[in-house]
Specification:
The protein is α+β, with helices and mostly antiparallel strands. About 35% of the residues lie in helices and about 30% in strands. The protein contains two helices and five strands, in the order βββββαα. A three-stranded antiparallel β-sheet has the order 1-2-3, with no helix packed on it. Helix 1 packs antiparallel against helix 2. The relative contact order is 0.11. It comes from Kordia aestuariivivens. It holds the Pfam family GldC-like. InterPro entries: Motility-assoc_prot_GldC (IPR019854).
Length: about 110
């Protein structure tokens, strides 16, 4: 039997007295990331028993709104591309990417 390897990703959050995130950092040693600061994180996991998505969305109180808009846009684009890879549904993926273009246009953010 082959030995199973494990990879670990850690997210550390420092909060104020009201449990509002002040600092967020993450570590993914296999990816060469060690205690790297970030302003926001979104994590989704699938609960196959309940057939539902569970989410953690965190951002620091000093995350600029203009950066949050770009963060959401880039997250939506990556979700559309991941959807295509996971399902091979080119038509829906293209529709999702069209929405991402609309989203960026309405928010007046440039795509990078």
């Amino acid at each position: 039997m082959a030995k199973k390897l494990k990879s670990e990703i850690k997210i550390a959050v420092s909060v104020d007295e009201n449990n509002v995130p002040e600092e967020i950092s993450w570590t993914a040693k296999d990816g060469g990331i060690n205690d790297e600061a970030t302003k926001a994180v979104m994590l989704s996991v699938w609960d196959h028993k309940a057939q539902e998505s569970l989410r953690i969305d965190l951002w620091t109180k000093d995350m600029p709104v203009d950066e949050m808009k770009v963060f959401y846009h880039q997250t939506l684009v990556s979700m559309a591309k991941a959807f295509q890879r996971a399902t091979n549904d080119e038509k829906m993926s293209a529709t999702m990417l069209d929405f991402c273009d609309y989203f960026a246009e309405k928010l007046e953010i440039t795509q990078k």
